[in-house]
């Protein structure tokens, strides 16, 4: 029970950090011809932190068996969904 609570807390914490970093990036976005308010080093640190957060979230999902290998889909991108026969058999049983 305590281990599950710790995982839930960690996931909530990681999600909050991820959302905050993304908001900072969005709020400081500038037009290409303008100088960005954040230094290159700070931008790199934000990217590195987002990478660490995403890696840990995936690790937790894999540990709990909930990792779906999903990735973002963009509006102008055609998608093809494939399902393994083994996964389909598990669903039907």
Descriptive report:
The protein is mainly α and 93 residues long. The chain has one domain. It has helices at residues 2-27, 40-64, 85-92. The chain is flat, with a radius of gyration of 18 Å. It starts with a helix and ends with a helix. The model has no long low-confidence stretch (mean pLDDT 84).
How would you summarize what this structure contains?
The protein has 93 residues and is an all-alpha fold. It contains 3 helices and no strands. The longest helix has 26 residues, at 2-27.
Q: How would the blueprint of this fold be written?
A:
Blueprint: H1 2-27, H2 40-64, H3 85-92
Helix pairs in contact: 1-2
Number of domains: 1
Q: What is the N-to-C succession of helices and strands?
A: HHH
Mean of the pLDDT scores? 84
- State the separation between the terminal residues, measured CA to CA: 29 Å
Secondary structure tally, helices = 3
The helical percent reads: 55-70%
Radius of gyration: 18 Å
- Overall, the morphology is flat
Task: Please give the number of β-strands.
Answer: 0
Structural class: mainly alpha
Biggest sheet statistics: none
Q: Which residue ranges are poorly predicted, with pLDDT under 50 across at least 5 consecutive positions?
A: none
Strand content: under 5%
